[in-house]
Design goal:
Layout lengths: L6 H8 L9 H21 L9 E5 L5 E3 H17 L2 E6 L6 E2 L10 E9 L10 E9 L9 H4 L8 E7 L3 E6 L4 E7 L4 E6 L10 E3 L10 H10 L11 E2 L5 H11 L2 E4 L12 H14 L3 E3 L19 E4 L1 H15 L9
Parallel strand pairs: 3-5, 11-12, 11-13
Antiparallel strand pairs: 1-2, 3-4, 5-6, 6-7, 7-8, 8-9, 9-10, 13-15, 14-15
Helix pairs in contact: 1-2, 2-3, 5-8
The protein binds 2,5-anhydro-1,6-di-O-phosphono-D-mannitol and magnesium ion.
2,5-anhydro-1,6-di-O-phosphono-D-mannitol binds next to strand 5 and helix 6.
Length: about 350
């Protein structure tokens, strides 16, 4: 085993960094890692068993649920319930937050916001999907935790991470002291440290956006796309366009190679599509910790005060130089289009 560091070993080693934690956060991260392995097993054999396709149900956002969405949701809730460290789970797949009222969770101090399986449209076609999670400390001191405990700004996150079920499976997380990536070694069933201290390049040449919606984009985004397509050797343009349609996969690639991922407001989604609590905040925390930037076009994602569980926001995230340029264009054109100003 020389030279290999498993996620479990790494978490325990780093536990000393949390002055306030007595091992609970470490156990919570470990529980998420275990649930991720179970989900990974199902994702990998998806084509072989009756788990592809629609579950026949619709979530609060009116989106059809896939069987794997539902499976992943159940696995994470069950891992977090039996782990005993978490008092509330807020998930994309449930209308309301899920209070955890088990004897082991009586004094639990953590809140978990999670998108159990993101990138649903890619599930049935063997393209990478992901899990995104965010961990907060509970603010209230007694009784059952409430919605107010969940509606914290992204700056309050104590940890965040994602799992990408791709050509290999990786878990990437931060506790506010840099970003580390672990690759699942299927032969030993462990996530092993493979990408220590990940840093997003300051500048890049990949832009990721669903350009099919171009006609509905705000002017600032249209201008940025035009800028991305101009020939300019000094700034490495035209940029390369890469859009998988799985936020985790698109952002993971840009984290490694440099780039910008944009999901703006559109005429049909005036507040953006992606959810603040369990999609944008965790990814923003990770990217900032890797040296990048995450903005809604006008302000830092992590500073948005959430007012509802399934709140949406626009997002511009990735290499600092690219995001700042896109923000500049958003500000320049915002006056002409007040409807597209920040969600
Ligand atoms: P989901 O939570 O329903 O899976 O939607 C989130 C996904 C992101 O992973 C992805 O980047 C985006 O939606 C793609 O949306 P679109 O198909 O509109 O480009
Ligand atoms: Mg999602």
């Amino acid at each position: 085993m020389t030279g290999i560091k498993t996620l479990g070993q790494f978490i325990i080693e780093k536990q000393a960094d949390f002055s306030y934690a007595k091992g609970e956060l470490s156990r919570l991260l470990r529980d998420i890692g275990i649930a991720a392995k179970i989900v990974n097993r199902e994702v990998n054999k998806a084509g072989l068993v009756d788990i592809l396709g629609d579950a026949g149900t619709v979530n609060i956002q009116g989106e059809g649920q896939k069987k794997l969405d539902v499976f992943a949701n159940t696995q994470f809730i069950s891992a977090l319930t039996s782990g005993g460290e978490c008092c509330i789970v807020a998930t994309e797949e449930e209308d309301d937050f899920v209070p955890i009222d088990s004897p082991v969770s009586k004094n639990a101090k953590y809140i978990v916001c999670i998108d159990p399986l993101d990138g649903s449209s890619n599930i049935d076609v063997n393209v990478a999907v992901g899990t995104i999670f965010s961990i907060y400390r509970r603010k209230s001191v007694e009784g059952m935790a409430t919605l107010a405990d969940v509606l914290q700004k992204g700056t309050e996150q104590v940890a965040a991470g994602y799992v990408i079920y791709g050509s290999s499976t990786m878990l990437v997380y931060t506790t506010g002291k840099g970003v580390n990536g672990f690759t699942l070694d299927p032969s030993i069933g462990e996530f092993c440290l493979s990408h220590p201290n990940m840093k997003v390049p300051h500048d890049g040449s990949i832009y990721s956006i669903n350009e099919g919606n171009y006609v509905h984009f705000p002017m600032g985004v249209k201008q940025y796309i035009k800028y991305a397509q101009v020939h300019d050797v000094a700034s490495n343009r035209p940029y390369t366009s890469r859009y998988i349609g799985s936020m985790v996969a698109d952002i993971h690639r840009n984290l490694i190679k440099g780039g910008i991922y944009i999901y703006p407001t559109t005429a049909s989604s005036p507040n953006g599509k992606l959810r603040l609590l369990y999609e944008c905040n965790p990814m923003a925390f990770i990217i900032e910790q890797a040296g990048g930037v995450a903005s809604d076009g006008f302000r830092r994602i992590l500073e948005i005060q959430p007012v509802e569980l399934h709140q949406r926001t626009s997002i511009f995230i990735g290499s600092e130089k690219m995001v700042r340029m896109a923000e500049e264009m958003m500000v320049t054109y915002a006056e002409a289009e007040p409807n597209h100003k920040s969600a």
